[in-house]
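Q&A log
Question type: sequence-to-structure
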Amino acid sequence: MVYRPLTYLLVILLLAVGPLVALAQRLERTSEKPTREQIEARLRYRTGRVTLRSGLATLDLPADFRYLDAQETDVVLRAWGNPAGHEALGMLVPAGVRVLAPEGWGVIITFSEDGYVKDDDAAKIDYRKLLTTMQQATRDANPERAKAGYATVELVGWAEPPHYDSLAHKLYWAKDLKFTDDSAHTLNYSVRVLGRRGVLVLNAVSSMDQLEPVRRDMAKVIGFVEFSGGHRYADFIPGTDKVAEYGIAALIAGGLAAKAGLFKVLVGALIALKKAIALGLVAAAAFFRKLFRRKPADTAAKL
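Response status: OK
Response body:
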């Protein structure tokens, strides 16, 4: 009988604590990070004709492509584990691709308003020699990457040699990259569309074993991305409009900062991170904020 009050007290405490424990468990479940599948199910894709940045450019999307606007692209990039602060105009995703799946990929679109890029050097470029220069610059930058805690990288070669269409003023190329912390090779496929006041920058990153489907899809992208009237390359007004301080060769090698004397550094920086996507530079200090890589984890970064 002496212990009965204590027994009653324990029973009362258990009855009181039980609901609190259940509530805590429910709160813990509701605060869990959404999975990639849950995030992907909420993405709002657009199809058909899309206008970028208040009429800067248009995308006439075929049936096998979808578009995510800047806000939705931010969701994807954060799910990939990337910091805020990028300047993406949007993202293109092939209709059959789940962008947040391990094998998923998309094309990040940005605009570098750095001026009219003269293309008079395009026909004179020795792309083999340019590749050799880029490979050496990549090797030279590896100690700094290692020092910063990033995997070192080898620029193996062109996955697709540079091609410039002097009539459409469109440039594309692809690099084969090998990172020391990954047995697989990485594909970085790049498209540049030259305009009156700058360059539309489109970048896709995937594994090298996806080269053929990526090449096929990027060929379609090249065809349907166009500047709008008043922003086209042919609309340039000499003596009035700004001229970029670099040409086609520097554009391929990462030269949006070549004007600042950082050509060699940025060539290496272009591929400083595994699965990196360069969003385009306006300054060297901003460059590393515009490189993205996927997280290996199955859950998304906190949204």
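Response note: The chain is about 30% helix and 25% strand.
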